[in-house]
Amino acid sequence: MNKSVMIVGVGGQGTLLASRILGAVLLKKGYNVKLSEVHGMSQRGGSVVTYVKYGDEIASPIIEKGEADIILAFEQLEAARWLEYMKPDGKVIVNTQKIDPMSVVIGDAVYPDGVIDAIKAAGADVLELDALPVAVEAGSPKAVNVVLIGAMAKHTGIEKETWLEAVRECVPAKFLDLNIKAFELGYNI
User: What CATH number has the domain bearing residue 79?
Assistant: First the structure.
């Protein structure tokens, strides 16, 4: 029973912390875990993807097209970009936030309308949420990543307390209360 999760977003959104929390949870549950971070122009707002594979015996962290059980997308276009990696019965958890890629910023392209509708039309089981106001409610717009990991946690079958233990281990003490609140709010969406 091997499973695959892709965490996708844009540089600076906190995808790496989210992947560390997920990895810590899976290790606590006794899974063999392999994690691979792929950075595009992450420091410049480019695409970032983390592959997380877990199960009884994992040889490689790389997720091939059609293998992801869950795609956790921090931004709409990133969800669409990686959709072909999802299993036919997989789940896409997508933040409705839009971050203009460089081509849009410099005026060479326009951010497309209807991205989430197109993802749904492709047959994906989609949970869409606007994580930014939830993160602000928790205390900081930078907590979007933990709101999203909280939303995903509910769909993994792993008990909430294990997730909270991982958040406590992975988040610096001075930001812990804020991130616990962000996780709880995301979990309860």
Answer: 3.40.920.10
